[in-house]
Amino acid sequence: MTPGGWRYSAETGGSAARFVDPAGAVLITLRCTGATRTVSLLRAGTAATAVPASITTSTGVKQLGASPATEGGAPVMAIAFAAGDAQLDAMAFSRGRFLVEVNGLPTLVLPAWAEVGRVIEDCR
Questions:
Q1: CATH number of the domain where residue 79 is located
Q2: Dist CA 69 CA 89 (whole Å)
Q3: Please, what sign has the CA dihedral across residues 5, 108, 49, 37?
Q4: ∠ CA 24-94-81, rounded to 5°
Q5: Distant-in-sequence, close-in-space partners of 105: CB < 8 Å, separation ≥ 6
Q6: Sheet containing 51-57: which strands, arranged edge to edge?
Q7: Could you tell me what percent of the chain has a pLDDT over 70?
Q8: Rounded to whole angstroms, what are the CA distances from 13 to 9, 31, 86?
Q9: How far is residue 41's CA from residue 81's CA, in Å, rounded to a whole number?
Q10: CA angle in degrees (0–180, nearest 5) for 15-66-22
Q11: pLDDT given for residue 10 in this prediction
């Protein structure tokens, strides 16, 4: 398991859950944008172009793509989901943890805590 924990916050137009390591660095942000009913997974890190990514849950692996973006001025790799995407449910209800892999970055093994599901439900 990647050391750290989830922190939930309500935001203008939605909400966010951030996975923060023991040093205070945000490794992942899961953000609901209510106006577009989009949930974005923002992985700290950078790449010059879009790269392969995957999310592994207790129900399987979903192959995705991650695109370069910024979050608060910091480089991130972004994956966008429609609020009704079944992969979001798989993450929220995974047995204890789920993995986020973005090509070129270390794999994160994250706990499936309530904050994950809360952000998803905020978008629905």
A1: 2.60.40
A2: 24
A3: negative
A4: 75
A5: 43, 45, 77
A6: 5-11, 14-20, 26-33, 38-44, 74-82, 60-71, 51-57, 97-102, 108-111
A7: 100
A8: 12, 10, 23
A9: 8
A10: 55
A11: 96
- Matching residue, tokens 């209800």: 93
Structural domain count, the chain: 1
Residue 51 forms beta bridges with which residues?
66
The length of the chain is 124
Q: What CA–CA distance (Å, rounded) separates 63 from 80?
A: 13
- Alpha-carbon Rg for the chain, nearest whole angstrom, is 13
**pLDDT at residue 118, rounded to an integer:** 97
Amino acid symbol at 69? A
User: Residue 54 belongs to what domain range?
Assistant: 5-123
Which residue matches tokens 């990514």?
53
Using one digit for the tens of pLDDT, what is the confidence trace for 45-90? Answer: 999 999 999 999 999 999 999 999 999 899 999 999 999 999 999 9
**Contact between 54 and 64 (Cβ < 8 Å):** yes
Retrieve residue 38's tokens.
């989009």
